[in-house]
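Students often ask why we bother encoding 3D structure as a string. The short answer is that it lets us treat folding as translation between two languages. Here is a chain of 456 residues written in the first language.
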Amino acid sequence: MRVTKPSSRSVLAALAVAVVLALVGGVIVAVSGGSKLHEEIASAAHSIPAASLEIAGVHHGKGDISKHLRLHVTNGRLTTVKVGHGATRLDGVFNQDRTKWHSDSRIAPSLDVQAAVQYVDLSHRTTVKHFGIHTKPAKQTYNDYLSPGGGVVGIGQPVVVTLDRWVPEKRRAAVQAGLTVTTKPNVVGAWHWMSGQTLHWRPPSYWKPGTKVRVASNLQGVSIGHHTYGPVGVHRAKFKIGSAHVSEADQAAHVMRVYNNGKLIRTMPISTGRTQYPTMDGVHIALDRRSVVVMDSATVGIPKGDPDYYRETVYWDVRISNGGEFVHAAPWSVGSQGSSNVSHGCVNLSTTNAEWFYNWSRLGDIIDVYNGVRPPELGDAGTSDWNMSWKDWVKGDAAPTKAALHAHARPARTYEPGFTPHAKAKAKAKAKRAAQRARHQRRMAKRHTSAHHHQG
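And here it is in the second language, the structure alphabet:
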């Protein structure tokens, strides 16, 4: 067999084709001869456009406070982006084809960092761009605080964000944009500004037990006006929704029924506020719990020297309003519990029942008080979240989502064991049977009386 040795010309041609493939990313260029081949190789190399990097948010090293840093590569793709380090690091995300990147956080005041951006062009050549970002200090800053900070909470617990400065209405949407609530399973919800410094987030109806909630606050560089900017970095919190603890306190019947996941587990006689100091009706949530509290009536408008003044050491306390309402032990009113309302506005229990309730309760549990005369106060943290319709709740959101706007929910109370449509129908049927028995007894009594008179 004769093996023909390839000519040097054909070897060069093959190598040239390989070079072209590398240069133009796999596009095959037709060749026919040596000199023409060299011309086409040169033409292909020169036809590959150069990659260029655009930087938005920084001009000549000066950062635009409150803007996101944005990068865009034309005729190439980004490989790595590093901006700052530690607490001043700006993390970000790429788009799908890695031609764009933007920072998660806004550019903050008092920033002095270096950035390194690496990208490749269409011929896979790497370029690294270095630049600095410098911003002036803020005249003022504000901070945010997230609650609850962790643990297991009740089905009525809202996400609470508290700011240490007042936010004008026109700036509230920007603040909300820096706040995210992530739930598992996914839950529709909305913010409601309770004031210029406090906003709550909740779903249309009570949380489902077992839901996991994560909250992130990224207000870096977010302005609320007058050169006042949010804190550097991201604040995070997470918590879990526990069992459905619902307590229904009937002020007219002087009884509180306690449910766990819809099952009645305890019925307790109570005494609520007397005529002068009525207990608020409405859905309350447990705000706090303490084994002992010194209660001074001067803090709720009953000064020392008033006949109704009191200062008592009170045990097993679950706070249900910021206006001084607690569910607590009241051994002095045991004789009235179950029959009359004699308290200064609290829900009185025996010591045994109060200790049990204290140990069973957790932050965010539902305590629904009804059949009283005093309406709930929407400005009180204990009664602000679940006593307005979902429609009214969403009105307090500076930038509601479409899902929140289209969500529908019954009044919160109708989801409780004692107030569900089934429970109401059952109670109605029970009342109907009681009325029938009463009518029957009246008829029997009337017949007995008639027979007695006839015999006489």
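Translate back mentally: The longest helix spans residues 421-455. Keep this in mind for the problem set.
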